[in-house]
Amino acid sequence: MPRLEKSKGRRSKRPKLDWKFVQRFCNIQKVLFPSWSSQSVLMFGTLLAVTLTEQLIIYQVGVLPSHFYNVLADKDYSGFSSLVGTAIVLILLNSTLKSLDQYICNRMYVSWRKTLTESLHTAYFQGRVYYTINVLREDIDNPDQRISQDAERLCKQMSTMASRLIISPFTLTYYSYHCFYSTGWIGPVSIFGYFVIGTIANKILMGPIVSTLFEQEKLEGDFRFKHMQIRVNAESAAFYRAGKVEHMRTNRRLQALLQTQTSLINKELWLYIGVNTFDYLGGFLSYIIIAIPIFTGIYDGLSPGELSALISKVSVFPGGNLELGDCSFLTNKQNEL
């Protein structure tokens, strides 16, 4: 008989975002990316090329309002007509690249799920592992749910995050340069400082949620398994007239699940407040950054039209540089992982 680990010791370790999580996540990546010539690596490289091109187009679209300010302030009709044509072409390119980005991510999701699930099946059906896990091990809950549902959700979340993660180092460098060129050192330093504070705050707020979310998923599996037991043993339960007993036991499982869900919702409230606060405050950060050189007289030589164009251009940087919306997006996805 295989050696069993003590379930109490295992249960005392609450899941959290720590080095153990990083190690396990890296082990999963080794399964998904077995070699440099694998299909996953090729799709990942294609996604990188598409997202890089997409970001270049997005930047050009983002600075279009500043050009419109210039031509409208100067009442330049020919320049305005040319700018409208350029805007239409850029928007069509952006839409096409965005759709291609989503298509590749969906294909990666299917490929990753196939690879990960088949790897789990290989380990699960090796020898009598399936018997050991389901019958002898009490510290591993609902292995069927882990393989069929959790693996699917993990691959889905990673595919959704993929394009934003791989493009971040490039957009960070690109927009930091343009931000420094327009506002000086105060711009990049302010943005980086803002997001370091936001990341630390979100990490603190996310800590209590991880273990509660894990417990909720466990209770979801237990509740589903209870109904499966009744379905499989319906004839025996009817023979022994066990309807009232099973009713009471099933409701007890439901109450435990709902209590945990309520606790999770209460904890998520503070995370949402933190994420949304930093998200919306970021919208004003660009104006605070550009206000410093304006009030110190650095841009006194610009005309009102040129100054309006500069303000419009600088307002693109915090959103593109560190992607305020993506900050909240990735925080929620990391929480779900």
UniProtKB/TrEMBL annotation:
Q: Where are the transmembrane segments?
A: 40-59, 79-97, 165-186, 192-214, 269-295
Q: Which GO terms describe its molecular function?
A: ABC-type transporter activity; ATP binding; long-chain fatty acid transmembrane transporter activity
Domain of life, source organism: Eukaryota
List the keywords (alphabetical): ATP-binding, Membrane, Nucleotide-binding, Transmembrane, Transmembrane helix, Transport
One Pfam match, by short name?
A: ABC_membrane_2
Family matches, as InterPro entries: ABC1_TM_dom (IPR011527), ABC_transporter_sub-D (IPR050835)
Q: Which GO terms describe its cellular component?
A: peroxisomal membrane
Any keyword tRNA-binding? no
- Biological process terms in GO annotation: fatty acid beta-oxidation; long-chain fatty acid import into peroxisome; peroxisome organization; very long-chain fatty acid catabolic process
- Residue span, ABC transmembrane type-1 domain: 41-312
Protein's name according to its UniProt entry = ATP-binding cassette sub-family D member 4 isoform X1
